[in-house]
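To start, an entry.
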Amino acid sequence: MRERWGREGLGVGVVCAALMMVAQGCATTPTTVPVLRGPTALVIAHRGGSLEAPENTLASMRHGLRAGADWLELDVHLTADGEVVVIHDDNVDRTTDGTGRVEDLTWSELERLNAGRPRWDGGAAARLGAEGTAPRDFGARFASARIPKLAEVLDLAGARVMIELKHTKKGEALVRGVLDVIAKSHAEDRVGIASFDVELLDIAHRLAPKLPLIGLVGGADQLPVMAQRPLAVLAVNQALVAAARDHLGSGVALWTWTIYSADRAKALDLDGVDGLITDAPAKVLEALRGIRPLPES
């Protein structure tokens, strides 16, 4: 049986050293920590729920909240002028009506792009088909959707946010930018820092040692290295769930990605997985808890 768990064993509540101020890149220490495990699997809305609203937009984040997701997941990059923006790819070609690399574009250039009709790559489409669903085309329904800043998402009331740091040559600048936004948004008690890149996790832990780390692993060979980090959550693809259990430290939660179907969500919940990162949060929450999303306001 699962038990509610709040990472008390990781020493949360100790104040971050005074010398490591936000100006140097350190977020302040949370006084409470987001729930990372529950009596049923937590539901993490992947990119806000990209099968139900256009990925990594405010529309998808609001959708994830209305659906009742326990967490929102998003990806971040730095613009040419240093803004932390929410977008998965290192370029805007797939998810917007523009072209170019995020790091080469300014915020003023990015904010003009339409992000309401993202496309799916072939690999994701194949995975969707294997679980009996298909990519979603939103047409003109979200014509006003834009790429948001991280600060805009953190401003959403009640949002617990899993912030995935994408690999970049400007890794420390990205980490410092994210921590600065977290501090200015007073969101330290409702975020987790995630990455596949152990170096970025190491930097984040050095600068903000009390923020929860979420280690992302896509291959079995990466498990031993990631497990050496002071993780709050180990998040793996579905094929690695069994192997990941051999690498879980004391009190570390096990999450898995990416879930598209209600049947798969139920099976993983019964298997004792602590968190389900899903593109269909409304569907999964209805299947697991009988929750229907609130209507759009």
